[in-house]
Amino acid sequence: MKRSERTRRQWLTTCVATTVGLSALAGCTDNSDETDRENGAESSTNGSLDAGWRMYGVDLANTGHQSNASGPTEDVDVDWTFETGDSLAATPIIVDGILYVGSHDEHFYALDAENGDEEWSVDLGTSARRTPAYADGNIYISGSRELLSIDAETGEIRWREDGTDSNPYYPLIVDEETGIVTDDEYIWRFDPKTGSLEQVIDLLPDPFEMGVSGAPAIADGIAYVGYEDRLGAIDLETGEREWEFENETGEIFHQISPAVADGLVYIGDVDGNFYAVDAESGDLEWEYNEATEVASNPSVADGMVFFGDSDRVVALEVDSGNKEWEADVGPTPDVQPTATNETIYLAVHRFLYAVEAKTGNKIWSHEFGSHVDEPRIGTNYAMQAPPIIVDGSLYVTTSNNKIHKFKTR
């Protein structure tokens, strides 16, 4: 609903982000005037300027959109599979033809992305459970209550730092002097060269509150992050809270990592409410209340925002929040959609899908065998992380210890 069609909520500004059936339903469109957003908060494209995949969410803005990549657009087959010693629950990254991924077996692997051959592996002595980040020839990894950096060419450990209060989430490299990571309470800044850590802000000083988005969305030095039932804009240099929004439904935001693009921040809650917020002011731009639950992080590409909802994926028009389409994909698509310019790729339990970005029409689907779906670590999800798309191929990790590369048949 456009804000002109409802009573606008007030936002708090303070000084201190195998083939299966699949149908697509055309959504309604709106010819309302475009909202003028001259706020200067444009989305960052760090890490997505080439066709590689260098961090969680593709870029610092966590858009899930790789504009320079193209993936399989016809039925696919597995090209190669590599098995580690334990389960995988993170998205790999690919830089200059090398795939990097960590495993619960406490090892970190570098593979030739073309053929799956192991280039090297290193014993980290800690479970590498999160998507790593790459910058300037180095890999940054979250372990159990610690951060590590290794040399991307050799796997040699450069430094390790155990100063976080709980397990850190996804490391992000903002520039050559600044890395950012969250845990269950704080945003931390670290030096990419040394690993030296310092707190940016304690988001939840109340001991009865806990929960911070796994990855903030970062643009123009501001981190947009969900914590408990709030969305905040944090100045990464000063640690000041530029604005904060408290969800009037009382539902939590912190299970979703927001995305920021073209001056809007997108986030949803578990009660099915999805919001677009002005990145500079915190003013509500529009909200969509027809979802059952917002199950995944949003992705943003070419004028649309995509997210998982119960048993479908929804596409909304970014200026109005009107639904463009929805596509049935089975129970709870709870990992971020992966977007290229033409196609949306989805990992839903043990099914992979490719759908047209403009219409939601199915292009292809693939079902893993039941051996992938065996219970592990309290879950029977085959895939717990988004696929990545590089050079016409798709790469995905599964909970039965494997990394798979898919190509068009």
Topology:
Blueprint: E1 24-26, E2 76-83, E3 93-95, E4 98-102, E5 107-112, E6 118-123, E7 133-135, E8 138-142, E9 147-151, E10 157-161, E11 172-175, E12 178-182, E13 186-190, E14 197-202, E15 217-219, E16 222-227, E17 230-235, E18 241-246, E19 259-261, E20 264-268, E21 274-278, E22 284-288, E23 299-301, E24 304-309, E25 312-317, E26 323-328, E27 338-339, E28 343-348, E29 351-356, E30 362-367, E31 388-390, E32 393-397, E33 402-408
Antiparallel strand pairs: 1-26, 2-33, 3-4, 4-5, 5-6, 7-8, 8-9, 9-10, 11-12, 12-13, 13-14, 15-16, 16-17, 17-18, 19-20, 20-21, 21-22, 23-24, 24-25, 25-26, 27-28, 28-29, 29-30, 31-32, 32-33
Domain Pyrrolo-quinoline quinone repeat: 77-126, 230-406
Protein name: Outer membrane protein assembly factor BamB, contains PQQ-like beta-propeller repeat
Region (Disordered): 27-50
